[in-house]
Amino acid sequence: MTFAELMLKVQTSYKEIWRIAWPIMLSSMANTVINFTDTAFVSRVGEKELAASALGGVFYFVMVMIGVAIGIGSQILIARKAGENKPIEIGVIYDNSFIILLATAICIQLLFYGFVPTLMHHIVKDQAIAESCIVYLKARGWGIVFMMILISLRSFYTGIAFTRIITYSTILMMTLNVLLNYMLTLGHWGFSPMGIFGVGTASAISEAVAAVYAILYTIFSKKLKQFNLFRFKNISFAEMFDIIKLSAPIVLQHIVSMGAWFLFFVLIEKIGSRELAVSNLVRSVYMVLMTPVWGYAQATNSMVSNVIGQGRKFEVLQLTRKITSLSFLTVLVSTTFCVLFPEFLFNLSTSDVSLIHDAMGSFYVISLGTVIFSISMILLSAVSGTGNTKAAMIIELINIAVYLLYVYLTTQFFHPPVEVVWVCEIIYWSMMGALSYWYLQSGKWKALNLKDHSEMALS
What we know:
Elements: H1 3-8, H2 14-42, H3 47-83, H4 87-114, H5 116-123, H6 127-141, H7 144-159, H8 164-184, H9 196-220, H10 237-271, H11 273-309, H12 316-340, H13 343-349, H14 353-385, H15 389-414, H16 418-421, H17 424-442, H18 454-458
Helix pairs in contact: 2-3, 2-8, 2-9, 2-11, 3-4, 3-6, 3-7, 3-10, 3-11, 4-7, 4-10, 5-6, 6-9, 7-9, 8-9, 10-11, 10-15, 11-12, 11-14, 12-14, 14-15, 14-17, 15-17
């Protein structure tokens, strides 16, 4: 068996699922650790800055999720070609998706420095928070290009089920972010304290260094020569169209999903800056609890598409059940530990005892939400992995409509404690799981065929 066959064709065993998933979990953990580290350091700057980092952080990830969505679209195509054992065509898909992601990054940067300041001053009631939010986004905005490069490479490595490099670049990014926050945000080792500007700068530099490392590894790795990456000889508008066509529903899905979460924090801010600070603290813990599931979800996208590419559609539901079981058990163990010892995570985030006390009710709500999420996210990822990204988008839009209606009514008319608003997460993920499960069981995805222009681009 050749190296390509060993690497490209995945099996459906628990061992194989874990082999593919855990480096992606670590990659997801990098974003979580950056968010968690940002929260921990900015909470020592001030409560207004902590509230501002909540809005700024969520807005940044709304933009990043556009790239993630495009990456998932190319990842599904790459995994399908991996299942068919066609490495050259994988390189064509990657080069075209790389250009799309760079163009996306440039557009987002223009948005960051042109439109965002006006937007923040209009939608945020507290102008001090709005100004701090703008400072944070300007500091972090230049790193979006490097984040898109990381997304493109993560999609490639996940698509071919060769995820070791994700581990290396992730560890590098997490370590740098902690050190740079210590230096720049609080002002140690000869640096002046930069406050919230230092938080954004530390994150951007960490992403840039990790991206450069990942690119150099990819270019000089002999194992990857067969894919002809970064050749850009077969750039094709037809290929780009296929990637965009498959990714567009995921892009809309992620924009709406993350946009709804951004609106969630905007509506919380209108209740009060204290409630927003509490919610940011809860968000940082929530992201930690969710981290393992993102790894399993990315693995689901690739493995489902890969198995279909091998002509083994009959194994898709069995594979999905296995991944769902692993995801559920992993989250059940981690969440149980956190519920028993909640102070562990909260004390890492802030030293404000009263803030931790106010956040406990919401913490218990999101703990239950995370357990439901561990099942629902895998089911939704399996829907996307079949190639029917439109079905996944429709499921998402239905859930978002209910989610926003609940949040709007509770924050604007009933004014309950903030933990009651957080119940929206339980409602959202419960509906998501039910609709995704129904679609997979219906078998409608079995008639779907992904059209691809890679072979035409090569000719």
